[in-house]
Amino acid sequence: MRRVVVTGMGGVTALGEDWPTIRAALAAGRTAIRMMPEWECFTGVNTRLGAPVPGFSVEDRYPRKKLRSMGLVSKLAVYATERALADAGLLDDPVVRNGRTGVAYGSSFGSPDAVLGFYELKMTGASKNLNATNYIRMMGHTAPVNIALFFGVTGRVIPTSSACTSGSQGIGYASEAIRWNRADVMIAGGAEELDITDSAVFDTLYATSQRNDRPGTTPRPFDRDRDGLVIGEGAGTLVLEELEHARRRGARIHAEVVGFGTNSDGSHVTQPQAATMERALHLALDDATLAPEAIGFVSGHGTATEWGDIAETKATQAVLGRHAPIHSLKSYFGHSLGACGAIEAWLGIEMMKDQWFAPTANLDVVDDRCGDLDYVMGEGRHLDVRYLMSNNFAFGGINTSLVFRKWE
C-alpha cells in the first residue's frame, strides 16, 4: 500500500490566512463571530450572527478571464489552493499538469447569488441576469472544477459536495486515490462562502444562535448553555503526495494521512446517530491499523447544536474513552460547512507540529448529557501528540473520520 503524506497546506479563514496569525488569535481567545447588520433586511431569519472572512478579494490578483467562472466560493478555494501549492513547492511545477495530479474538493453548494438569474427567469419569464457562467458558478462542483481550470490539472476530479463533510471527504478520497496508484499528487479540501441562505437553513430547524447582541459568547460547543450554531466561511487545501514521490523531489513533509473512515447513518436527514458515528471512527482506526489508545487528540465537529454535540461525544467516548483530549474549532470560526473539515485538518496538523492545542472557546460548563471526555477548556494545552483524529458529520447522515500521523 502506497503511503500518503501532506506536503502543502494553505487556507483562508475569518481569523487569518497563516498559522502564526491564527494561532495568536486562538491563544488570545479571540473569535471571528460578529453581528451582521447587512442581514437586518431579512426579517424571516432570527440569527444575525456570522463569521465572514474580512476584506477578501482576488479581483486584482487573478486575470478577469479566469474570474468569470468563479463565484466567491471558488475564489476562496483557488486562493487557498494557490497557498497550499506554494507551500508544497509545486505552484509552477509541471507535475501539477502531467495527468498524475488530481483534485478532490467540495462545498455544500456553489455561489447562491448565481441562482438568482434562473429564479428571475422562472418567476417572470425573462431574465436580465442570466449568462453563460451562472450555472458554472452555482453548480455543486464549482470549486474543484475552477481549481482544475485555474492550475491546469488534467488528472481525476472528485467532487465532494456533501455539506459539512465536503472538506474531510475530499481529503479522504484524495488519499485513497494516491494509495491505489490512481494519482501521485492530489489537491484536497473544501470551501464555503457565507450567505444568508445558509443561516436560514439552520434557522428553520431552530439550530442557529440568537445571541445577536453578544457575538463573543457564541457558539458554545458542548456547553450546557449553548443556543445553536453560527455560520462562517473560508477554505482549506492540503496537497497530498505519495511518500516516495515527495522524497524524490526533496519535499518538506507536514504529516502523514494514515486513516480514513466514512459511512452513512441511513436513518434521518438531520438527526445524527451515535451508533454510526462510532462506526466511522472505528473505520478510520482500522484503516490506520491503530488501537484507540494511540490517538493523542481529537479535533471534534462540535457545532453547538444539542442533538449533534450529544451524539458526537457519546460516539467518541464509546470508541476512545476519556484519554484523548478534544476541542471544537467552530467555537472560533463558526461552522464553515463545506470548508470546516479541511480547515480543521490543516490547523490540527499545525497544532500537532507546534505541540499546542487551543481550548474550545466559550466552553464553561460541559452539558452533562454529553459524553465523558477530556474537554480542553479555559486554556490551551501543550501536548506531544503522535496521532491526531479529525471528525466531521453532515446533513444526510454522512460521517467522516481522518487520522494524521505527526511526521518525525
List the helices and strands and how they pair.
Blueprint: E1 4-12, H1 19-27, E2 34-35, E3 49-51, H2 64-67, H3 72-88, E4 101-106, H4 116-124, H5 134-138, H6 142-151, E5 157-159, H7 166-179, E6 185-192, H8 196-203, E7 231-232, E8 234-242, H9 243-248, E9 255-264, H10 274-288, E10 297-299, H11 306-320, E11 325-327, H12 330-333, H13 340-354, E12 356-357, E13 374-375, E14 381-382, E15 387-394, E16 398-406
| Relevant CATH superfamily | Thiolase/Chalcone synthase
Assign the CATH class.
Alpha Beta
What overall form do the CA principal axes indicate?
A: globular
Strand content: 15-25%
Query: Which residue ranges are poorly predicted, with pLDDT under 50 across at least 5 consecutive positions?
Result: none
Secondary structure class reads alpha/beta
The sequence of SSEs as H and E is EHEEHHEHHHEHEHEEHEHEHEHHEEEEE
Overall mean pLDDT stands at 97
Major sheet size, sense and barrel closure: 11 strands, mixed
The Rg value, from CA coordinates, equals 20 Å
Looking at the overall shape, the CATH architecture is 3-Layer(aba) Sandwich
Spatial sequence of strands, sheet with the most strands: 5-4-6-8-1-9-16-15-10-11-13
Distance between the termini: 20 Å
Molecular structure report:
The chain is of the alpha/beta class and 408 residues long. It contains 13 helices and 16 strands. Strands 5-4-6-8-1-9-16-15-10-11-13 form an 11-stranded mixed sheet, with helices on both faces. Helix 11 links the parallel strand 10 and strand 11. The protein is globular, with a radius of gyration of 20 Å. The mean pLDDT is 97.
